[in-house]
Amino acid sequence: MSAPGSADGQAVRRPTLTQVAALAGVSLKTASRALNGEPNVAETTGERVRAAADQLGYRLNGIARELRRGATSALVGLISGDLTNPFYSAVASGIERELRQHGLQLVTANNDEDAERERALVDAFLERRVRALLIVPSGTDHGYLAIEGTRGVPFVFLDRPPVGMAADTVVIDNHGGARAAALHLLAGGHRRVALVADLARMAPQRGRIDGFVEAMAEAGNDEWRPYLRTDVHDVRQAERTVRELLATDPAPTAVFTTNNRLTTGALRALRGHPRPPALIGFDDFDLADVVGTTVVAHDAMALGRSAARLAQERIGGHEGPARTIVVATSVIARGSGERPPN
Protein backbone atom coordinates (compact mmCIF):
# COMPACT_ATOMS: atom_id res chain seq x y z
CA MET A 1 0.00 0.00 0.00
CA SER A 2 1.33 3.42 -0.89
CA ALA A 3 1.99 5.85 1.92
CA PRO A 4 -0.13 9.01 2.20
CA GLY A 5 1.16 11.72 -0.06
CA SER A 6 2.91 9.25 -2.31
CA ALA A 7 2.52 7.71 -5.73
CA ASP A 8 3.39 4.02 -6.11
CA GLY A 9 5.11 4.15 -2.73
CA GLN A 10 7.38 7.04 -3.68
CA ALA A 11 7.05 10.42 -1.98
CA VAL A 12 5.55 13.15 -4.14
CA ARG A 13 7.66 16.28 -3.91
CA ARG A 14 6.44 19.78 -4.43
CA PRO A 15 7.66 21.44 -7.60
CA THR A 16 10.42 23.97 -7.05
CA LEU A 17 11.10 27.38 -8.50
CA THR A 18 14.23 25.91 -10.08
CA GLN A 19 12.07 23.48 -12.04
CA VAL A 20 9.78 26.30 -13.14
CA ALA A 21 12.76 28.33 -14.37
CA ALA A 22 14.15 25.33 -16.27
CA LEU A 23 10.82 24.59 -17.95
CA ALA A 24 10.35 28.23 -18.93
CA GLY A 25 13.93 28.52 -20.16
CA VAL A 26 14.81 31.47 -17.91
CA SER A 27 17.11 32.10 -14.98
CA LEU A 28 16.01 31.44 -11.41
CA LYS A 29 16.05 35.18 -10.67
CA THR A 30 13.87 35.97 -13.70
CA ALA A 31 11.37 33.27 -12.72
CA SER A 32 11.17 34.68 -9.19
CA ARG A 33 10.67 38.24 -10.45
CA ALA A 34 8.00 37.14 -12.91
CA LEU A 35 5.97 35.23 -10.34
CA ASN A 36 6.28 38.01 -7.76
CA GLY A 37 5.01 40.59 -10.26
CA GLU A 38 8.19 42.66 -10.16
CA PRO A 39 8.94 45.20 -12.93
CA ASN A 40 11.33 44.86 -15.86
CA VAL A 41 10.13 41.40 -16.91
CA ALA A 42 9.00 41.12 -20.53
CA GLU A 43 5.33 40.27 -20.90
CA THR A 44 6.04 37.21 -23.01
CA THR A 45 8.61 36.00 -20.50
CA GLY A 46 6.18 36.48 -17.65
CA GLU A 47 3.50 34.54 -19.48
CA ARG A 48 5.94 31.71 -20.19
CA VAL A 49 7.00 31.51 -16.52
CA ARG A 50 3.41 31.54 -15.27
CA ALA A 51 2.46 28.84 -17.78
CA ALA A 52 5.36 26.70 -16.57
CA ALA A 53 4.29 27.22 -12.96
CA ASP A 54 0.73 26.20 -13.79
CA GLN A 55 1.91 23.13 -15.67
CA LEU A 56 4.04 21.98 -12.73
CA GLY A 57 1.50 22.99 -10.07
CA TYR A 58 3.95 25.40 -8.47
CA ARG A 59 2.60 27.97 -6.00
CA LEU A 60 4.42 30.76 -4.24
CA ASN A 61 4.75 30.58 -0.46
CA GLY A 62 3.02 33.84 0.28
CA ILE A 63 3.75 33.78 3.99
CA ALA A 64 7.46 33.23 3.52
CA ARG A 65 7.59 35.94 0.86
CA GLU A 66 5.96 38.52 3.10
CA LEU A 67 8.16 37.63 6.05
CA ARG A 68 11.29 37.99 3.91
CA ARG A 69 10.12 41.46 2.98
CA GLY A 70 9.87 42.35 6.67
CA ALA A 71 6.09 42.20 6.90
CA THR A 72 4.34 40.52 9.82
CA SER A 73 2.14 37.48 9.46
CA ALA A 74 -1.62 37.94 9.34
CA LEU A 75 -2.17 34.50 10.84
CA VAL A 76 -3.44 33.74 14.34
CA GLY A 77 -3.21 30.14 15.53
CA LEU A 78 -5.82 28.20 17.49
CA ILE A 79 -4.99 24.92 19.20
CA SER A 80 -8.16 23.31 20.50
CA GLY A 81 -9.96 20.09 21.16
CA ASP A 82 -11.83 18.20 18.46
CA LEU A 83 -13.41 20.71 16.07
CA THR A 84 -16.15 18.21 15.26
CA ASN A 85 -17.45 18.98 18.75
CA PRO A 86 -20.01 21.79 18.28
CA PHE A 87 -18.57 23.63 21.28
CA TYR A 88 -15.11 23.99 19.76
CA SER A 89 -16.46 24.79 16.31
CA ALA A 90 -18.59 27.59 17.82
CA VAL A 91 -15.57 28.93 19.69
CA ALA A 92 -13.52 28.91 16.47
CA SER A 93 -16.32 30.66 14.61
CA GLY A 94 -16.41 33.44 17.19
CA ILE A 95 -12.64 33.86 16.97
CA GLU A 96 -12.61 33.92 13.17
CA ARG A 97 -15.37 36.51 12.91
CA GLU A 98 -13.63 38.84 15.34
CA LEU A 99 -10.18 38.46 13.74
CA ARG A 100 -11.59 39.07 10.27
CA GLN A 101 -12.52 42.61 11.30
CA HIS A 102 -8.84 43.30 11.96
CA GLY A 103 -7.48 41.77 8.75
CA LEU A 104 -6.27 38.64 10.53
CA GLN A 105 -6.80 35.01 9.53
CA LEU A 106 -7.37 32.02 11.77
CA VAL A 107 -5.54 28.71 11.37
CA THR A 108 -6.53 25.79 13.58
CA ALA A 109 -5.14 22.51 14.85
CA ASN A 110 -6.47 19.77 17.12
CA ASN A 111 -4.46 18.72 20.18
CA ASP A 112 -6.49 15.51 20.71
CA GLU A 113 -6.33 16.23 24.47
CA ASP A 114 -2.65 15.23 24.30
CA ALA A 115 -0.10 17.42 26.09
CA GLU A 116 2.83 16.33 23.90
CA ARG A 117 0.89 17.02 20.72
CA GLU A 118 -0.11 20.38 22.10
CA ARG A 119 3.51 21.35 22.70
CA ALA A 120 4.50 20.18 19.20
CA LEU A 121 1.71 22.27 17.71
CA VAL A 122 2.81 25.32 19.70
CA ASP A 123 6.32 24.92 18.27
CA ALA A 124 4.93 24.51 14.75
CA PHE A 125 2.81 27.66 14.98
CA LEU A 126 5.65 29.70 16.45
CA GLU A 127 7.95 28.57 13.64
CA ARG A 128 5.39 30.03 11.24
CA ARG A 129 5.55 33.31 13.18
CA VAL A 130 1.86 33.66 13.94
CA ARG A 131 0.82 37.03 15.33
CA ALA A 132 -0.85 35.43 18.34
CA LEU A 133 -1.63 31.97 19.63
CA LEU A 134 -4.92 30.92 21.22
CA ILE A 135 -4.89 27.65 23.13
CA VAL A 136 -7.49 25.34 24.65
CA PRO A 137 -4.87 23.54 26.74
CA SER A 138 -4.59 19.84 27.40
CA GLY A 139 -1.26 20.01 29.22
CA THR A 140 -0.78 20.70 32.90
CA ASP A 141 2.38 22.83 32.72
CA HIS A 142 2.74 25.84 30.46
CA GLY A 143 5.79 27.40 32.05
CA TYR A 144 7.77 26.75 28.88
CA LEU A 145 5.52 29.22 27.04
CA ALA A 146 6.49 32.12 29.29
CA ILE A 147 9.81 32.41 27.43
CA GLU A 148 8.12 32.56 24.04
CA GLY A 149 5.60 35.07 25.37
CA THR A 150 8.36 37.56 26.15
CA ARG A 151 9.44 37.42 22.50
CA GLY A 152 6.37 39.24 21.31
CA VAL A 153 3.92 36.40 20.62
CA PRO A 154 0.79 36.91 22.74
CA PHE A 155 -0.92 33.85 24.18
CA VAL A 156 -4.58 33.64 25.12
CA PHE A 157 -6.01 30.58 26.85
CA LEU A 158 -9.60 29.49 26.30
CA ASP A 159 -11.91 27.31 28.39
CA ARG A 160 -9.05 26.23 30.66
CA PRO A 161 -6.53 28.45 32.48
CA PRO A 162 -2.79 27.95 31.98
CA VAL A 163 -0.61 26.37 34.63
CA GLY A 164 2.83 27.77 35.34
CA MET A 165 2.47 31.09 33.55
CA ALA A 166 0.32 34.22 33.60
CA ALA A 167 -1.63 34.85 30.40
CA ASP A 168 -4.93 36.30 29.24
CA THR A 169 -7.67 33.73 29.76
CA VAL A 170 -11.35 33.34 28.86
CA VAL A 171 -13.28 30.67 30.76
CA ILE A 172 -16.87 29.62 31.38
CA ASP A 173 -18.44 29.92 34.82
CA ASN A 174 -18.17 26.16 35.25
CA HIS A 175 -18.56 26.14 39.02
CA GLY A 176 -21.55 28.47 39.04
CA GLY A 177 -23.29 26.72 36.15
CA ALA A 178 -22.99 23.26 37.69
CA ARG A 179 -24.07 24.57 41.08
CA ALA A 180 -27.17 26.10 39.49
CA ALA A 181 -28.00 22.78 37.80
CA ALA A 182 -27.68 20.89 41.08
CA LEU A 183 -29.86 23.43 42.90
CA HIS A 184 -32.44 23.15 40.12
CA LEU A 185 -32.66 19.39 40.61
CA LEU A 186 -32.72 19.68 44.40
CA ALA A 187 -35.57 22.19 44.15
CA GLY A 188 -37.46 19.59 42.11
CA GLY A 189 -37.24 17.13 45.00
CA HIS A 190 -34.34 15.01 43.73
CA ARG A 191 -31.85 13.50 46.14
CA ARG A 192 -30.44 10.52 44.21
CA VAL A 193 -28.76 12.57 41.51
CA ALA A 194 -26.16 10.95 39.25
CA LEU A 195 -23.20 13.04 38.20
CA VAL A 196 -21.63 11.88 34.91
CA ALA A 197 -18.45 13.86 34.23
CA ASP A 198 -15.70 13.93 31.60
CA LEU A 199 -11.96 13.83 32.38
CA ALA A 200 -11.64 14.98 35.99
CA ARG A 201 -8.06 16.18 35.37
CA MET A 202 -9.36 18.99 33.16
CA ALA A 203 -10.03 22.30 34.90
CA PRO A 204 -13.55 22.85 33.44
CA GLN A 205 -14.64 19.41 34.61
CA ARG A 206 -13.15 19.94 38.06
CA GLY A 207 -15.04 23.23 38.30
CA ARG A 208 -18.31 21.56 37.30
CA ILE A 209 -17.80 18.68 39.71
CA ASP A 210 -16.93 21.09 42.55
CA GLY A 211 -19.95 23.27 41.85
CA PHE A 212 -22.26 20.26 41.92
CA VAL A 213 -20.70 18.87 45.12
CA GLU A 214 -20.92 22.26 46.83
CA ALA A 215 -24.65 22.53 46.15
CA MET A 216 -25.29 19.02 47.41
CA ALA A 217 -23.25 19.65 50.57
CA GLU A 218 -25.11 22.88 51.30
CA ALA A 219 -28.38 20.95 51.01
CA GLY A 220 -27.09 18.26 53.38
CA ASN A 221 -27.57 15.64 50.68
CA ASP A 222 -25.23 12.64 50.47
CA GLU A 223 -27.55 10.35 48.55
CA TRP A 224 -25.94 11.30 45.23
CA ARG A 225 -22.50 9.87 46.09
CA PRO A 226 -23.07 6.26 44.90
CA TYR A 227 -23.97 7.68 41.48
CA LEU A 228 -20.77 9.64 40.81
CA ARG A 229 -19.04 8.67 37.55
CA THR A 230 -16.00 10.53 36.20
CA ASP A 231 -13.60 10.19 33.24
CA VAL A 232 -16.49 9.39 30.90
CA HIS A 233 -15.04 10.83 27.70
CA ASP A 234 -17.30 10.11 24.74
CA VAL A 235 -20.88 9.50 23.64
CA ARG A 236 -20.71 5.70 23.70
CA GLN A 237 -19.13 5.57 27.13
CA ALA A 238 -21.74 8.01 28.42
CA GLU A 239 -24.57 5.90 27.02
CA ARG A 240 -23.14 2.77 28.62
CA THR A 241 -22.57 4.55 31.94
CA VAL A 242 -26.11 5.92 32.13
CA ARG A 243 -27.57 2.51 31.27
CA GLU A 244 -25.56 1.01 34.12
CA LEU A 245 -26.79 3.72 36.49
CA LEU A 246 -30.40 3.05 35.53
CA ALA A 247 -29.87 -0.63 36.34
CA THR A 248 -28.77 0.05 39.92
CA ASP A 249 -31.15 -0.42 42.84
CA PRO A 250 -32.28 2.10 43.75
CA ALA A 251 -31.70 3.95 40.50
CA PRO A 252 -30.99 7.69 40.42
CA THR A 253 -34.02 9.91 39.91
CA ALA A 254 -31.97 12.53 38.05
CA VAL A 255 -28.81 12.75 35.95
CA PHE A 256 -26.46 15.71 35.46
CA THR A 257 -24.01 15.42 32.55
CA THR A 258 -21.07 17.78 32.34
CA ASN A 259 -20.78 18.39 28.58
CA ASN A 260 -22.73 18.06 25.34
CA ARG A 261 -21.24 14.73 24.29
CA LEU A 262 -22.17 13.11 27.59
CA THR A 263 -25.66 14.57 27.33
CA THR A 264 -26.02 12.99 23.89
CA GLY A 265 -24.98 9.63 25.32
CA ALA A 266 -27.45 10.02 28.17
CA LEU A 267 -30.28 10.80 25.75
CA ARG A 268 -29.51 7.61 23.84
CA ALA A 269 -29.59 5.61 27.08
CA LEU A 270 -32.93 7.15 28.09
CA ARG A 271 -34.55 6.61 24.69
CA GLY A 272 -37.65 4.47 25.14
CA HIS A 273 -37.33 4.37 28.93
CA PRO A 274 -40.82 4.14 30.45
CA ARG A 275 -40.05 6.53 33.31
CA PRO A 276 -36.85 8.39 32.50
CA PRO A 277 -35.05 10.28 35.25
CA ALA A 278 -34.70 14.04 35.11
CA LEU A 279 -31.77 15.17 32.97
CA ILE A 280 -29.74 18.38 32.84
CA GLY A 281 -26.71 18.73 30.59
CA PHE A 282 -23.92 21.29 30.65
CA ASP A 283 -23.58 22.99 27.21
CA ASP A 284 -26.44 23.71 24.87
CA PHE A 285 -26.53 21.83 21.57
CA ASP A 286 -28.46 21.68 18.31
CA LEU A 287 -32.00 20.35 18.67
CA ALA A 288 -31.86 20.44 22.48
CA ASP A 289 -34.93 22.65 22.34
CA VAL A 290 -36.67 20.24 19.97
CA VAL A 291 -36.10 17.18 22.19
CA GLY A 292 -36.86 19.17 25.35
CA THR A 293 -33.48 18.88 27.07
CA THR A 294 -32.79 21.21 29.99
CA VAL A 295 -29.25 22.59 29.78
CA VAL A 296 -26.72 24.86 31.42
CA ALA A 297 -26.19 27.24 28.52
CA HIS A 298 -23.41 29.67 27.70
CA ASP A 299 -22.34 31.56 24.60
CA ALA A 300 -19.42 29.64 23.08
CA MET A 301 -19.11 32.15 20.23
CA ALA A 302 -18.84 34.96 22.79
CA LEU A 303 -16.02 33.04 24.45
CA GLY A 304 -14.20 32.93 21.11
CA ARG A 305 -14.85 36.59 20.34
CA SER A 306 -13.56 37.64 23.77
CA ALA A 307 -10.37 35.63 23.31
CA ALA A 308 -9.81 37.14 19.86
CA ARG A 309 -10.27 40.65 21.25
CA LEU A 310 -7.70 40.01 23.97
CA ALA A 311 -5.27 38.74 21.35
CA GLN A 312 -5.88 41.72 19.10
CA GLU A 313 -5.28 44.13 21.98
CA ARG A 314 -1.97 42.44 22.74
CA ILE A 315 -1.02 42.61 19.06
CA GLY A 316 -1.88 46.29 19.19
CA GLY A 317 0.60 46.88 22.01
CA HIS A 318 -1.33 46.35 25.25
CA GLU A 319 1.19 45.46 27.96
CA GLY A 320 -0.96 45.30 31.09
CA PRO A 321 -1.16 42.34 33.46
CA ALA A 322 -2.87 39.11 32.47
CA ARG A 323 -6.66 39.36 32.34
CA THR A 324 -9.38 36.81 32.93
CA ILE A 325 -12.87 36.96 31.41
CA VAL A 326 -15.59 34.68 32.78
CA VAL A 327 -18.48 33.83 30.44
CA ALA A 328 -21.81 33.61 32.29
CA THR A 329 -24.07 30.56 32.30
CA SER A 330 -27.79 30.05 32.80
CA VAL A 331 -30.13 27.09 33.26
CA ILE A 332 -32.63 26.81 30.41
CA ALA A 333 -35.59 24.68 31.50
CA ARG A 334 -37.05 22.66 28.62
CA GLY A 335 -38.75 19.78 30.36
CA SER A 336 -36.19 17.03 30.94
CA GLY A 337 -34.74 18.67 34.04
CA GLU A 338 -38.20 19.29 35.50
CA ARG A 339 -39.35 15.68 35.70
CA PRO A 340 -40.34 14.79 39.30
CA PRO A 341 -38.60 11.98 41.18
CA ASN A 342 -39.96 8.53 40.35
UniProtKB/TrEMBL annotation:
Q: Which SUPFAM superfamilies match?
A: lambda repressor-like DNA-binding domains (SSF47413), Periplasmic binding protein-like I (SSF53822)
List the molecular function annotations (GO) for this entry: DNA-binding transcription factor activity; transcription cis-regulatory region binding
Q: Which keywords annotate this record?
A: DNA-binding, Transcription, Transcription regulation
Pfam families, from UniProt? Answer: LacI, Peripla_BP_1
Q: Where is the HTH lacI-type domain?
A: 15-69
Q: Which Gene3D superfamilies match?
A: 3.40.50.2300, lambda repressor-like DNA-binding domains
Q: Which InterPro entries has this protein been placed in?
A: HTH_LacI (IPR000843), Lambda_DNA-bd_dom_sf (IPR010982), Peripla_BP/Lac1_sug-bd_dom (IPR001761), Peripla_BP_I (IPR028082)
* Superkingdom field: Bacteria
Stated name of the protein: LacI family transcriptional regulator
Q: Which organism is it from?
A: Krasilnikovia cinnamomea
Organism placement in taxonomy: Bacteria, Bacillati, Actinomycetota, Actinomycetes, Micromonosporales
